[in-house]
Design brief:
By secondary structure, the protein is mostly helical. The chain has 21 helices and four strands. Helix 4 runs parallel beside helix 13, helix 4 crosses helix 18 and helix 5 packs across helix 9.
Amino acid sequence: MSIFLRKNFTRLIVLAVLAALFVAAAGGMESSDFVITLLRGLSVGSLTFLVASGFSLIFGLLDVLNLAHGTLFMIGAYIGWTVYVRPDTFVDLLTPLFLIFSGFMLGDVWAVIGTRGLFAGGMKRILPWAGMLVSALILVGVLRSYPVSIWNPEDYAQSPVSISYLAGLGQNLLPPPAAFESISPLLAFAGLLLGSLLLAFSLALFAAGKQGLVSRLNWCSFAGFGAFLLAGILFFVFNDALTNFLASLNTNWLFLIAVSVAVATGVGLGALMETTLIRPLYIRPIYQLMLTLGLSAIGIEMVRAIWGRPEFTMPRPAFFAGTGEGCPATSLADWWQYHCSTMILLDGRIRIYNEIFVPIIGLTVLIGVWILLQRSRLGMVIRAGVQDREMVEALGINVRRVFTLVFALGVGLAALGGVLAAPSIGLSNMMGESFLLNALIALAIGGLTSYPGAALGSLLVGLLQQFIIKYGQIGIPIPFADIIFKPTPPIVPASTILLMVVVLLILPNGLLGKKE
């Protein structure tokens, strides 16, 4: 015990001071204000943690600074909104998406073909660019004519803002399904498949020779391609039936599907980014920064082009949206019976979704990922692969795929945070940048490569912001003076930066960070 105290004396003193400051802040509030502020801080901290934890996993295990992480958080929110509010658009997009990604399921095949002598020398340098250009022309040409029921962000009556408002009132009327006009279904299928194969093969050629050799091909090498191709065909055949099924679902189940699709999209995008863009740049950190920063800017502009610039809110599922008889609830039993959106707690009103549901999800993710990393065979492989990749590969474990899984998991956590944030704080083009900044501050406070540090730092950031906001309303009495100081809104982000600076001056590796 004495050795532990000596080694962590400074860290324990800083934690004790922080705890004392929060206790002092609580002493200046009424009990109801304190509880509500605490729960709101937990909510903001949970959303920040979902971004910070994914970022921490990717950087701590793969040593990759993913500056597109905030944009992927935002994309998760918009994808979830699309599935929840416009299931017809989601279903229409399934067939082209599965066909486009089917070519990437032939990774082992491309690895074998890419090592052949035909693609050596000048051909290896020219062919990937030519293939990408041709595939882009094919895919853009087909997608421009592919029928998809979608909104019009330039027409307010058909924009996501109006659609969200009507959906919140229970008037979620879907337009008639789109039909093929300027292109036949067979030609569209052939174009999407050909473009997918060309694009996947061209990207694989860039990394040929750097990914190791595939000794032989078997049925598993083609199974993913066949599954994606079959799924694309089935979604096309049952398009209308699936759309009607989703549109008639209870909003609770539809919200669960929206969350699942958003997380799956994040995982898929993360895996695609790692295998095609990040993997060749593991030894070039500056290129990683430039690439992910560029992807972030591209993602923001794509969201603006598809969903528009105005902010809007994703309606809450019925489980958290009750406003009729028995609301606001006075206990969890009343909430369970009436599904109230709010509950009375210590004479104050809290929002069930924001202040209870979101923190529970954050705590669940914290425990689940920690168990995955520390108590599972996969976690052992991940940690061993980071420390000694050659030895793990000598044992017959595909470390490349493990790293891809880690990157995909980190992005999936960000997408989960985005779709959970959509009904809580709304959707905007800059929500990802805001939460990424909070996450980076939280990681600097807690420890950049420490997973528990990400949780602690996110909690401190969320609590500090909400306490500053609350004291901006009630004011802080200045001792020995008849003055009430009310913090202004700009002080909210400045306070977290100040906390980060103070902590780093005392503990350069953060509260729970380890010395390099």
